[in-house]
Design brief:
Strand content: 15-25%
Number of domains: 1
Radius of gyration: 17 Å
Number of helices: 7
Largest sheet: 6 strands, parallel
Number of strands: 12
CATH architecture: 3-Layer(aba) Sandwich
Helix content: 25-40%
Shape: globular
CATH class: Alpha Beta
Strand order of the largest sheet: 4-9-3-10-11-12
CATH superfamily: P-loop containing nucleotide triphosphate hydrolases
Low-confidence stretches: 10-42
Bound molecules: adenosine-5'-diphosphate, guanosine-5'-monophosphate
Oligomer: single chain
Structural class: alpha/beta
Amino acid sequence: MTGTSWPGESRAPGTTAASGSGGAILPAVGPEGAPAFPGPTGNRLTVLSGPSGVGKSTVVAELRRAHPEVWLSVSVTTRRPRPGETHGVEYFFVDDKEFDRLAASGELLEWAEFAGNRYGTPRGPVLDRLAAGVPTLLEIDLQGARQVRAAMPEALLVFLAPPTWEELEKRLRGRGTEPEEVIARRLAAGRIEMAAECEFDLTLVNTSVKEVCRRLIALLADAPEASSPGRSPS
Ligand code: ADP
Ligand code: 5GP
């Protein structure tokens, strides 16, 4: 693979995003970059994190089905596709060399290693959507959420929690997509993620996918009552 092109992305890496005929400029950001939020339209970025198996992908799939107006960032990863996953839909699947190139050239807003694979958020498409006022959602791990917090302090960080630890294990095993050794690594990472819940602006407990989606939509639409801090069973 010689390069990863993000759909709708025509800017050179590391350049600024221009919006509209007036050319409102949003500075480029990254783990080490300057804060560049909120965008010109006052929109905000929402980040959804939580332990592997809690139901993030399920929630996001339901959200995309019911609310196509929300834009979900498609991450790049070195993980192999699971059955049914398509390049450019769930992820951009790349090899180590291409990931190295993307990270080194500043094309990733944040990136992290998780359970033996690397994952990152393409920078340009996120900045473009924010500049255009599109409700924008990232589904990323704790390390990525911390990087976004540092680069974009106005971003809203939402933690998705399982009803119980036992239920998390059950969901992760029940999914049947990873061998036991990978499940163990993901559960170990999950314990660390659960301990970092307090770093997030609020928690939604994934009891009902539909209820979590309802709350998330309210958050993305910036309803003040939806973003009251603390835990919220869904
Ligand atoms: P993640 O993306 O957080 O790793 P997934 O979305 O793949 O998690 O969900 C893990 C498993 O849990 C899947 O089999 C999914 O169908 C199931 N699941 C997700 N949400 C719920 C829920 N609210 N109740 C019961 N099972 C759920
Ligand atoms: P999975 O392999 O189950 O799809 O994802 C594993 C973990 O990687 C999940 O916690 C998911 O949120 C996280 N992840 C997915 N994309 C990104 C990304 O772009 N950046 C970071 N930091 N984590 C990501």
